[in-house]
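Final report, results section. Input specification for complex C-07:
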Amino acid sequence: MNAEQLALDIQHLKISYGPVEVIRGVDIQVQPGEKIGIVGESGSGKSTVALGVMGLLAEGGRITDGSISIAGKPVNYEDEKRLNAMRGKDVSLVFQDPLSSLDPVKSIGNQIAEAIRWHNPRMSRREIRDRAIQLLTAVGVPDPAGKLSQYPHEYSGGMRQRVLIAIAIANDPAVLIADEPTTALDVTTQAQVMELLDSLVERLGIAVVLVTHDIGVVAEFCDRVLVMYSGRVVEQVRVEDIFDRAAHPYTAALLDSLPSRAAEAHGELKWIPGSPPPMTDVPPGCAFAPRCHWAVEECSVQPAARVIDAQKLHTAECHRAEEVQAASRQAGGEKEAAHA
Amino acid sequence: MPKVSHAHAETEPADAAPLLDVAHLHHSYSRRGGAGYDVLKDVSFQIFPGQSVGVVGESGCGKSTLARAILRLISPHAGSIRLGETDLVRLSGRALRHERRRLQMVFQDPFGSLDPRMTVQQLVEQPLHVHHIGEKKDRRSRAANMLADLGLGETFLDRLPKQLSGGQRQRVAIARALVLDPELTVLDEPISALDVSVQAQVLTLLREEQRKLGTTYLFIAHDLAAAEYFCDTILVLYLGQIVESGPATQVFTDPQHPYSASLISAAPDPRPAGKRRERIVLRGEPQAQRPERGCPFAPRCPVGFEREKCRSEVPDLTPTDDGRRVACHYPGELSI
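Structure output:
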């Protein structure tokens, strides 16, 4: 892989809040136009990675190690001026809750115009207005010219999320980060918004990082999945391989806890005993080991990422990755049999 | 493991009496200077003892209003809600309080529904105290036993809610409801605030307790996969009306109403591409109101959008041959 061609290249990233390390060495590479999903439970660090890339870490948070490059350019997170030029232009972010991300006292038109003007200070009012209408049309807002003067409360939840997507793509970013973009929406609206996002990024060639807790959304939208646990990416796998080739016990356990899969196989729901360690007290070695039924003595040493497939697209940080994967394949085969 | 196989509401043998019989329930929220809007319109269904009945539908469909009406947290404007022999709609004051013991609720948010100053032990004892059940010592042991059943042993008894994880809090909330041995427990999205791996645990514990105590659940669900897994019977609500009801396996595998089909097809499906359901994308925006004439779903319906009958006549909720009820002029035309 040529580093200069990557849309997003995160190397050995570490992020701390005060003395507490919450991202403990994360590598993520995203090709232009590729859609990756980051899944994990609350506290796994998936949103922190997203905020870290944007340079929007909360008070006290800082990048302590590693590097982030966007569209081939290394980002200097100390330089606030450069960050402002980067946000929205090279990388943009869509948050979960469209109501609180929009300003309630500014018209939708003004909010889109603001995003355009920020990176195009010399554009005329007319051009900005035309571009805003063009963007609203692209995201499927009906009667875009008429809607420009309306306020966020006059839009439905799904339409607000479309506006946020319009703002996010306004300056043709190389990377779009979507942090739980449809969690606040109803399923039929969620389906519409994800479909829209899919066709837009395809057409514009934008790389997407989708941060979500919903493996179903990832399965339908993404090319590749990264599973996070306690501040590390424990498995990276192509979406078509996650279901019956999971090579990390945590991924396999997450899949087993999904009711839709249990209902399909008429199986029992399984859950993961215990809870993730507090980030102030992560055990040495594999952080999942205390909850893992595959754990052996050597798990007290942090496993390196093991490459599972020939194309090097599938990696898992587990000493027993090959055995776990064999079990997943067997379980997948049994599910197949139960289904047939 | 086979599903807990209670007989289904719509096919229950004639001799079994329903635990809950909701008939022609209406409720409207009035608007300033205008006619009220019916959030629940002619809702009728029965729940039999030991069942789990799921209510699915999107925001604004009336599922939370329905739960609140059954618990009599609001007073519905018309219709009846019979719990055994008692019509809850007609009760008030002390009589209502007395009956409330038979009905309990678990709320969505375990962070907002527990008093932060009370210990786990106190939280679970409180409902017994309120309903004057048992002596103090007896209450202590009942609370402790209930908590132990839900996997919260002695070490948890003196903890405060803030010292618990989300899943542990929700187990305390469930203990608070079930310690009264209610006949009907309303679960209002009990797992939506929890992480996936914990959701499975809470669903499993709820089911185990049901087997043990014989309680009946009304499960208000946002998550369709959880409803499919957990419930025997499903009610699909659209704009305050039941559009389809029937055994969960039938409704989920072969929905008859186009709205049920669209809803089920839209749920993100965590399966490999080849096995996924084809998604039906609805027209336009979610409706806030029913059209003046015709089927409420017609303006968004892939089946009835251009059909005169759907645009002019409201379909009745009609029993089908396979023991379901469907409110559609052209049931089964849209399949998943």
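Chain B is about 30% helix and 20% strand. The two ends of chain B are 26 Å apart (CA to CA). This concludes the modelling results for the funded period.
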